[in-house]
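Question (not urgent): is this output format expected?
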Amino acid sequence: MGSKIDPLLERARWAVATWKLASDARSFAQLARLRLSDPTIKTVDLRLRALDDHTVAGRPGTADLWAIETLLPPVHLPPEQIALQDVQRIWDLGANIGLTMAHLALKCPDAQIVGVELDAENAALCRRNVTPWAARCRVVEAAVWESDGEIVYGRQKGDELGFAVEKDPDPGADGLRAKALALNSLRNESEDLIDYVKMDIEGAERHVLRTNTQWAEGVRSIKVEVHPPYTVQECRQDLESLGFRTWVDPLYRPEAGGMPPVAGIKPTYR
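Got this back:
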């Protein structure tokens, strides 16, 4: 009997969480389909409450479902000290399929948002999912890195959130390649201050927070998803060396896995 309780409880928890995400019964069913690997289905469309019932697309049998689930709680939003209606410029680094860009566009109605995503398939779906806010959202297909050029990255099968830049790739390996974009280059596109940076770049954060970091002078607040072997403490130290006051995001839920995001804000932010 005991061996059957946990799976049932897990299904019940998933059903409750999914109903909170889905705008209607059809979207609930579509979310269930995303849990299945079906090569005959490329994408499914569904409406999400967190996106004010706008329709977005996801791919069955991939980590797109996880990307949807991370909208609750919205750990990707700017620090709570910041009035969302005052945010004018955002970088979404590691935009994936565009759901965080879409949510930021809704919550920060005057913000211009630049999303950077290294994988071509993810970037294409990202552009599709931010279509209602296309006038304010720009998707850049590139890997955030410490310098401009080209990088080699790897992926885990079925995990579109698992791309990681390979710092010292095996020359004989059949790695995927993408344009590398230094944040200094992105910053040089405009003299305007960046009100908020969401950084979820699968391990590359350790490099971009330590090398060629002049870009940080023009950033007012930041939130970083930390990936091992980088640690939360190291991330806080690096951000503090760049002028941010830091803390661990209180919205983090241990059951979500991974490490808690680190938030930072410049003391001069008003």
